[in-house]
Amino acid sequence: MQLDVWSDVVCPWCYIGKRKLERALERWDGEAVEVVWRPFQLDPRAANSGRPMVDVLGEKFGADGARQAQARVTEVAAGVGLAYDLSRQVEANTFDAHRLLLLGREQGVQGAVGERFFHAHFTEGAHLGDRDVLVALATGAGLEGAEAALDDDALAERLTEELAGGVAIGVRSVPTFVVGNRGVAGAQDPEVLLDLLRTG
């Protein structure tokens, strides 16, 4: 059985959703599940500015609103064992990160690369729009050829097609979990994800 998960590595709810999925899979006693991580960009026009995300969000929602939102998601993350330090989170465009995740899928290390990107962004303040940072993180997670992949036009074209494919099937928010022709959006609890696996 294949479970497609549409997500973005700078989405705090996607990392939370990943942990909830892992808990669901620990309890799953059906056929083997292959998890395939699919690309989605929360903001395709995001700059690789490296600016603190609290400032970026503050421009959209006001300083108080940004801090309150970060406090809420940090609390939820702690509930699934994640130690977010969003004061260190920085703005990044994730196209290149997704390019490496796509290569990681082909090499069988996509899960490890994605986990490393999530942790680096949400707890270490790593700049996921910086090529050198991405190459170091991905290589450390077992990816081969990371540097060359960032200049691979064919890989970029395949990624663009996958991004468009998500939009075409109706993915509007992430994480979105899809089995067959059924899906659920949001950082769902394990029980909801188990029901998707049973009925998908």
From TrEMBL:
Top-level taxon in the UniProt lineage: Bacteria
InterPro entries xref list: DSBA-like_thioredoxin_dom (IPR001853), Thioredoxin-like_sf (IPR036249)
Signal peptide positions on this chain: none
DSBA-like thioredoxin domain ranges (all copies): 2-197
Name of this protein: Disulfide bond formation protein DsbA
Record organism: Saccharothrix yanglingensis
